[in-house]
């Protein structure tokens, strides 16, 4: 049996099993909108925001918005081991994950970037690999140029 730990508005915490989920009387009414019957009470629910990476959702139930975070077994195990996803990231440089050719550089020195912004495109084994920013930050240095051949673990970009 799989259990999910949920947090609602960071104050109420619940454990939900697959059995609890299977016993819900839920009918989709349109995209991201549902009608729910629970203990002979009727609820209208709408998912108004979703962040699949962080497993967080904003759900409007009968015109009240709730922020819901869901953790499955693997998320709980990772947290218990001290390797939480989303823990502060202290990545200060980007190195080539494999040998290849720099096809494009999307940033410049001194530019402010957000997490997941495209930094550069590395061609390796006839495939284009988009390297994205691991965190918000400012580009300190760019050690390569478009058209450069790079080796595995070669420094590409440094953050301030």
Automatic annotation (TrEMBL):
The keyword Transcription regulation does not apply. SUPFAM superfamilies: Single hybrid motif. The keyword Transport does not apply. InterPro entries: Biotin_BS, Biotin_Carboxyl_Carrier/Decarb, Biotin_lipoyl, Single_hybrid_motif. Residues 82-160 form the Lipoyl-binding domain. Keywords: Biotin. It holds the Pfam family Biotin_lipoyl. PANTHER family: OXALOACETATE DECARBOXYLASE ALPHA CHAIN. This is Acetyl-CoA carboxylase biotin carboxyl carrier protein subunit. It comes from Gaetbulibacter jejuensis. The lineage of its organism: Bacteria, Pseudomonadati, Bacteroidota, Flavobacteriia, Flavobacteriales.
């Amino acid at each position: 049996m799989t259990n999910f730990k949920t947090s609602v508005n960071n104050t109420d915490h619940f454990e939900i099993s697959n059995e609890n989920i299977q016993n819900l009387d839920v009918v989709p009414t349109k995209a991201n909108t549902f009608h729910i019957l629970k203990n002979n009470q009727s609820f209208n629910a709408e998912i108004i925001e979703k962040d699949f990476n962080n497993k967080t959702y904003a759900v409007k139930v009968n015109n009240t918005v709730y922020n819901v975070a869901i953790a499955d077994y693997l998320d709980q195990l990772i947290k218990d081991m001290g390797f939480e996803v989303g823990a502060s990231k202290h990545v200060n440089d980007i190195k080539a994950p494999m040998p290849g050719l720099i096809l494009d550089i999307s940033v410049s020195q001194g530019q402010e970037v957000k997490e997941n912004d495209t930094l550069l495109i590395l061609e390796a084994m006839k495939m284009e690999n988009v390297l994205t920013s691991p965190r918000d930050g400012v580009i300190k240095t760019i050690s390569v140029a478009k058209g450069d051949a790079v080796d595995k673990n070669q420094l590409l970009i440094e953050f301030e």
